Amino acid sequence: MQQEAFIRLEGVEKEFRTAAGSFMALKGIDISIRRGEYIGILGASGSGKSTLLTMMTGIDRPSAGEIHIGGEALHNMKEGQLAAWRGRSVGIVFQFFQLMPTLSALENVMLPMDFLGKIPLAQRRKRALLLLERFGISDQAAKLPSAMSGGQQQRAAIARALANDPELLVADEPTGNLDSTTADSIFTAFKQLSNEGKTILLVTHERSVGSLVQRKLILVDGRLAEDSAKVQAGGFVA
């Protein structure tokens, strides 16, 4: 019996209109992703990778098509509904970490819990410390981001993204500012999270990540040029 898709995109298009004219960033994207898959979204600069990610996190809306995630129809939601859904369901990891500079690593991880209120107040500090410990930086808990290395900041950012235990974790070029050894450790951490049931969407231009992800989606000029699930024996086909 085929597993029902956790993420389903049907005919997704995105058009940007500028003074110079319109530009189609995404062209007829059809994708189905199972819960717990570790997906690498690859492509050259300008291929539509980051635009696709903004569609699947509800940060932006498609010009056409449908986006369904966890039974929710994102394309039909109002802005307030999208923000609430994103807070509950999505953890986001950025290339430039985006940690609050005046908060310690521990406080940065606790911040999403304070905003959403999903985790009881009495449990937030303990949960934040456990997440920092999981990524090997519990000794950095009291430090400000400026006193941490790039790799330590990115681990803190991943811990923060997991603060509210989201079903979906997305990362947009999360290793772009890290050395190769640290980058490999970040990719491995994502793989472990996938093994635990998290659905991981990793946008990257590094084709070397292909050996770590379960499945590759390759974009070229806004189109899905290759889906490795459809070329591997026994792969998941929508």
Top keywords for this entry?
alpha/beta, 6-stranded mixed beta sheet, 6 helices, 238 residues, 4-stranded antiparallel beta sheet, disordered C terminus, 31% helix
Radius of gyration: 18 Å
Strand order of the largest sheet: 6-7-8-3-9-10
Q: Count up the helices.
A: 6
Give helix and strand order, one letter per element, not per position.
EEEHEEHEHHHEHEEE
Low-confidence stretches: 233-238
Total beta strand runs:
10
Q: What helical percentage do the residues reach? A: 25-40%
Largest sheet: 6 strands, mixed
Strand content: 25-35%
User: How many angstroms does the end-to-end distance come to?
Assistant: 13 Å
> Strand pairing plus helix content: what structural class?
alpha/beta
> Mean pLDDT, as a whole number?
89
Query: What gross morphology would you assign?
Result: globular
Compile the SSE list and pairings:
Blueprint: E1 7-18, E2 21-33, E3 38-42, H1 49-56, E4 64-69, E5 72-73, H2 79-89, E6 90-93, H3 105-116, H4 121-134, H5 150-161, E7 168-172, H6 180-195, E8 199-204, E9 215-220, E10 223-227
Parallel strand pairs: 3-8, 3-9, 6-7, 7-8
Antiparallel strand pairs: 1-2, 1-4, 4-5, 9-10
